[in-house]
C-alpha cells in the first residue's frame, strides 16, 4: 500500500479542523469606489423591493434591490466588482483547493505536453497566470445585486442558503460559492450570521466575504441600527455542462 501524501494526512487534517470555509478579504474594493457605488445606488430610480426565492416577502427579507448586471450604465461597476471578487476567488481556491478539484476530475498539460490529474500540490504551485484561466474554465460570475437594508427595519432574518431547485433552467443549482462586498459600515450590528459555524461577520467597507452556497452555510442578514446597510452580492457559479463537457 502506498503512503498517502502529506496534504492528505496530517496537513489536511489540521487544515480541515481549523477551517469553517468562511473567508473575509479586507479592502477588496477601495473605500472611494464603495462610496461612489452607494451614491449611484441611492440616485437610481430602478430599485425594487428585494425578493427571496418565492417572491417579495418582507417578513423574510426587507430590502431595496437593484440588479446591475446586463445594464450598460452599470457595466463599469459590474466589471470592478467581478475583478475584485475574482482576485478573492483565487486566494480562496489556494486556501481550499478542493473547491475546484473535488467536483471535477481535472487534467492539465505538463511542460512536455502530457496530461496529468490536477492535485492540490500542483494547484498550489500555480501562479495567477496559470490558475486564473483554469478557474475561468470551471466557474462564471453570477448576476450582481446591490441591496440596501434600512436602519431599524431592513434585514434578511430568514435562515437560508443560496442553493435551491427553483428555476427550470437550474441556474440556482449551479451556485457554488456566495459572495458579498460590504459597501459601508456607518451603522451598528447588521452582521452576516452563519448558523452552524456560529459566526457573525461584521460589515467593513470594501471587505469581501466568500463562503459555500449550500445548506452547510445557512445564514441570515441581521438588521442594521443607526444607519442603512448597503452591499453588493452574487455567486460564483459552475459553468453549465454544455460549456464544460460539450453537447
UniProtKB/TrEMBL annotation:
Top-level taxon in the UniProt lineage: Bacteria
- One Pfam short name: 2OG-FeII_Oxy_3
Q: Which InterPro entries would you find in this protein's record?
A: Pro_4_hyd_alph_FE2OG_OXY
Its EC number is: 1.14.11.-
Q: Which UniProt keywords apply?
A: Oxidoreductase
Q: Where is the Prolyl 4-hydroxylase alpha subunit Fe(2+) 2OG dioxygenase domain?
A: 145-236
GO MF: oxidoreductase activity
Indicate what this protein is called per its UniProt record.
Answer: 2OG-Fe(II) oxygenase
What organism, scientifically named, is this protein from? Lysobacter koreensis
Amino acid at each position: 500500500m502506498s503512503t498517502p501524501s502529506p496534504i492528505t494526512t496530517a496537513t489536511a487534517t489540521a487544515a480541515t479542523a481549523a477551517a469553517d470555509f468562511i473567508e473575509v478579504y479586507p479592502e477588496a474594493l477601495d473605500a472611494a469606489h464603495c462610496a461612489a457605488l452607494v451614491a449611484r445606488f441611492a440616485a437610481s430610480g430602478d430599485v425594487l423591493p428585494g425578493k427571496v426565492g418565492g417572491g417579495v416577502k418582507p417578513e423574510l427579507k426587507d430590502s431595496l434591490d437593484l440588479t446591475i448586471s446586463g445594464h450598460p450604465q452599470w457595466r463599469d461597476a459590474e466589471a470592478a466588482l467581478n475583478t475584485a471578487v475574482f482576485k478573492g476567488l483565487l486566494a480562496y481556491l489556494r486556501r481550499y483547493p478542493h473547491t475546484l478539484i473535488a467536483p471535477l476530475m481535472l487534467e492539465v498539460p505538463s511542460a512536455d505536453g502530457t496530461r496529468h490529474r490536477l492535485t492540490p500540490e500542483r494547484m498550489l504551485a500555480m501562479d495567477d497566470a496559470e490558475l486564473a484561466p483554469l478557474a475561468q474554465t470551471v466557474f462564471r460570475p453570477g448576476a450582481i445585486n446591490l441591496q440596501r437594508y434600512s436602519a431599524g427595519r431592513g434585514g434578511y432574518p430568514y435562515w437560508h442558503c443560496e442553493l435551491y431547485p427553483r428555476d427550470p433552467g437550474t441556474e440556482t443549482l449551479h451556485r457554488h460559492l456566495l459572495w458579498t462586498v460590504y459597501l459601508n459600515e456607518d451603522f451598528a450590528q447588521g452582521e452576516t450570521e452563519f448558523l452552524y459555524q456560529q459566526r457573525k461577520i461584521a460589515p467593513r467597507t470594501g471587505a469581501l466575504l466568500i463562503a459555500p452556497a449550500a445548506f452547510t452555510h445557512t445564514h441570515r442578514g441581521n438588521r442594521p441600527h443607526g444607519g442603512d446597510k448597503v452591499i453588493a452580492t452574487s455567486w460564483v457559479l459552475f459553468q453549465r455542462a454544455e460549456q464544460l463537457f460539450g453537447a
